[in-house]
Amino acid sequence: MKRMPLYLALGALLCGLPLVCNAYWLDVCVMIGLYALLALSLNVILGQAGIFHMGHAAFFAVGAYVTAILNTLCQWPIFWTMPLAGAAAAFFALLVARPIIHLRGDYLLIVTIGIVEIVRIALINDIFGLTGGSNGIFGISRPRFFGFRIVRSVQFYYLVWGMVGVSLLLFYGLWRSRFGRALNCIKEDDIAAEGCGVNVTRYKLLAFVLGAFWAGMAGTVYAAKMSTIAPESFNFMESVIIFAVVILSGGSQLGVLVSSFLFIGLPEVLREFSNARMLIFGLAMMIMMIWRPQGLLPPGPRHYAAPGASAATRAGGEPPERGAA
After folding, report:
1. Who wins on pLDDT, 267 or 135?
2. CA distance 123 to 120
3. Cβ neighbours of residue 308 closer than 8 Å, sequence gap 6 or more
4. With helix as H, strand as E and coil as C, how does the chain read?
5. Which of 63, 55, 73, 75 is nearest to 128 (CA)?
6. What is the percentage of the chain residues whose pLDDT exceeds 90?
7. Which long-range contacts (CB under 8 A, 24 or more apart) does 141-149 make?
8. Are 67 and 186 in contact (CB under 8 A)?
9. CA angle 62, 65, 71 (to 5 degrees)
10. What is the pLDDT of residue 324?
11. pLDDT tier at 149, thresholds 50, 70, 90
């Protein structure tokens, strides 16, 4: 609740931004929203469960290609393909995560890097003649919403950021739920969590599946926006950027939004300094890691009322002194 004014101010800013931006900056804001959507989905895996996962671009690619194939070959409308794209990415995540979920730290990180490369090479090799090889898939149609065709950048802007807003509400509810508390316990100490009765393997798999489902739906929006997709759009560097956004955020949802603006928007702002913009950007990241190693906006501590606590204590007041009448 303390951060609610920040969310309201950010929401008002985002709603009014198209009024002052040209077409180029609107496209930049759409890409910022897509990366924010991907980072929010990865935040469930990395930020909440503490699972080192750098293969998120693979789930993003599965969702985008499922949408592209169903739309170009079967003529399915874009929004009809979205749940199937998410389900396909979630099923793929379940298949690849089940054998490796017992790994920890750097070992899991290395394996997930391999998943991205396997998916990219498989797409280049034109699986079953469906992915178009290195040329990708062309001619993806624009989405329609109740007969209204979404074509212009401002329309995609509100579509993407509307999905980001829905994701914020859903993931906040998830963080507050028993599932979110279990993930938080696993992040702090998975051995202690297992000793307390938490099924660590099950919760980690669920986190993987949920994050992949959301990344697959983000892939649908990306395919509709670009109308053309290719394997090179889902390379390892995309996973690095999403991973870095979540790490810089500190694991909170507001931090994810701010770090998405920094990682995607700041290089565009510094484009006029083309010879030194990446040097400036890298220096800023180094200073950030030294100044705020815990991230930009780490989530606040959880507060729980003890069983039998007085109403004043649960409301945040001081407990009555011993012996007081």
Report:
1. 135
2. 5
3. none
4. CCCHHHHHHHHHHHHHHHHCCCHHHHHHHHHHHHHHHHHHHHHHHHHHCCCCCCCHHHHHHHHHHHHHHHHHHCCCCHHHHHHHHHHHHHHHHHHHHCCCCCCCHHHHHHHHHHHHHHHHHHHHCCHHHCCCHHHCECCCCCCEECCEECCCHHHHHHHHHHHHHHHHHHHHHHHHCHHHHHHHHHHHCHHHHHHCCCCHHHHHHHHHHHHHHHHHHHHHHHHHHHCCECHHHHCHHHHHHHHHHHHHHCCCHHHHHHHHHHHHHHHHHHHHHCCCHHHHHHHHHHHHHHHCCCCCCCCCCCCCCCCCCCHHHHCCCCCCCCCCC
5. 73
6. 42
7. 141/71, 141/77, 141/78, 141/224, 141/227, 142/78, 142/224, 142/227, 143/77, 143/78, 143/79, 143/224, 144/77, 144/78, 144/79, 145/79
8. no
9. 140
10. 43
11. confident
Quick: pLDDT tens for 29-87. Answer: 999 999 999 999 999 999 888 888 888 999 999 999 999 999 999 899 999 999 999 99
Q: What is the pLDDT of residues 104-113, one digit of tens each?
A: 878 888 899 8
Residue 325 has a pLDDT of: 38
What type of residue is 2?
K
Q: Which two tokens stand for residue 20?
A: 């002052």
Both tokens of 87, joined, read 């389900």
